[in-house]
Write a structure and sequence with these properties.
It contains 4 helices and no strands. It is mainly alpha-helical. The protein is flat and about 75 Å long.
């Protein structure tokens, strides 16, 4: 019984906060910096231009390079990677 009332009251407060965030975002969305708006208009990236970039890239000869794990030292991993690359080119 108590939990039901708690959910009802807590849910109404949570819903109020989320709807307020929604309205605040819509209010801010209309206010954009004019310089940024002009810069966005100048950006003419299209789906076709990105597709052409992908066509030109060589996707057959790529190498998957993993980053260090959280418990590994990044400098040690980089040194190992450079050493392996050096040995590969010799």
């Amino acid at each position: 019984m108590f939990h039901d009332k708690l959910y009802l009251i807590g849910g109404s407060f949570g819903l109020r906060e989320f709807t307020q965030i929604r309205y605040d975002v819509h209010k801010l969305h209309g206010k954009i910096d004019p310089a940024l708006k002009e810069k966005l208009k100048q950006n003419t990236v299209t789906l076709e231009s990105e597709y052409e970039k992908l066509e030109k890239s060589n996707l057959d000869n790529w190498e998957n390079i993993r980053g260090p794990r959280p418990w590994e030292d990044s400098r040690t991993v980089q040194k190992q990677r450079q050493e392996a690359l050096r040995l590969k080119t010799e």
